[in-house]
Amino acid sequence: MSTPPARLGPLYLAGFTTAFGAHGVAAALGVETDSVGLTFVTLGLILAIYDIAEVILKPLFGALSDRIGVKPVIVGGLLVFSAASLLGVFAASPVLLAVARLGQGAAAAAFSPASSSAVARLVGPAATGRYFGKYGSWKGLGYAAGPLLGAGLIVLAGLPALFLALTVLAAAAAAWTLVAMPTIPVLPKQRATVLELVKQSTSPVFLGPVMLLAVATAVMGVAVGFLPLIGTQLGIDPILSMGAISVMAIVSAIVQPRIGRLYDTAPRHATTLMMTGSVLLVTAVTAVGVLPSIITLLASAILVGLGVGMITPLGFARLASTTPPERMGRTMGSAELGREVGDAGGPLLVGLIAGAATLPIALGAIAATAAVTAAAGGALTARSNPSNLTDGRLSSPRS
To answer: Does residue 129 contact residue 262 with C-beta atoms inside 8 Å?
Structure first.
């Protein structure tokens, strides 16, 4: 099935919304801690609750989209995200903020994997790389713009203004999706035993790309959390330190569509390109850990942007090209789960080791962990022989 690029606009906006909501509110809560009465403990819990909801619910909503269709899940998720954001407008206590953040996380867990599944179903296997690159690019813009737009809205009218903007944005995305996105037919469901589900989720064709995607989000999470801290320790202007994160996201957004096109023209090179991206990620955290300076800080941000921009569209395109359409939602939900584990696990590992030892040692540990995981993921991905690809899809997708 193929669709004109303009019909994918609502999905791009949905991707931007989830990224903007994730990073924009997280950065804003850190700035507004005193004004809303948050302690370090409650701040940590409120920040974590969004990711926890996504980790638990993404595979479930991904499977639900296979059963009832992706469009209802996307529209419903966006409407719930809008309602949860509206609650945040009036949240005057940490408890209400936590409830609003939980609602946003649960809603994002619905429409994020469903949107990925919709991109794969709408464009067809011959163009998955190109359009996953564009989809990832819009999410990258959301990650980059989230903290900046959030800061601007807070300066103008405080934290409620940010939640109000997300309310309107999510509602607009839901309305646009409802009107403009084609209805994708639900395919006949094939029953699967628990053993078959385990086999599918541990097969090289699935596990390899997911491990590489997890490496990308783990290093990106570390960069977002710790590059500004390193900048502060070096005495660098905070605006420049935070700007490095925006540079990272912008580089990723620029790279993803171009890398995606390479997959469509030469899918056999996907593993090599993803491993190259992994090398860039490992180099980035190693360099800034060994030789912290303004030069390595900015260079690391650029390298992380390049690495994430290479791995993300290729990983999702590979999964889309090797997954039967009738279980695309479940695959995308499970893949998103792997990314969330990396996103949470990377900063947690660095934080624990830095607390027990030093930050350079912690960065060395995440570099080593990323290298080992990427090597394993690359080996598993390579086992799904590209010579079996026919029109972008493995000849035996259940293998």
So the answer is: yes
* Residue 63 and residue 200 in contact, taking contact as beta carbons nearer than 8 Å: no
pLDDT 10s digits, 235-278: 887 667 777 878 888 899 899 988 988 888 888 888 999 999 99
Helix (H, G, I), strand (E, B) or coil at 17: helix
Q: What are residue 177's DSSP bridge partners?
A: none
- In angstroms, the CA 186 to CA 210 distance is 25
SS3 389: strand
Torsion-angle region of residue 341: left (phi > 0), alpha (psi -120 to 50) or beta?
alpha
Confirm if 380 and 211 have CB atoms less than 8 A apart: yes
CB 212 within 8 A of CB 381: yes
* Global pTM value: 0.79
Q: How far, in Å, are 48, 76, 105 from residue 112 at the CA level?
A: 18, 12, 10
Six token digits for residue 113? 């994997």
CA atoms in the 13 A half-sphere facing the CB of 75: 14
Name the 3-class secondary structure at 390.
strand
Q: What is the enclosing helix (H) or strand (E) of 394?
A: strand 393-394
Contact 50, 101 (CB under 8 A): yes
* Rg of the chain over all Cα atoms, to the nearest angstrom: 20
pLDDT higher than 50, residue 393: no
Q: Which two tokens stand for residue 295?
A: 């030069």
Q: What are phi and psi of 234, to 5 degrees?
A: -85, -5
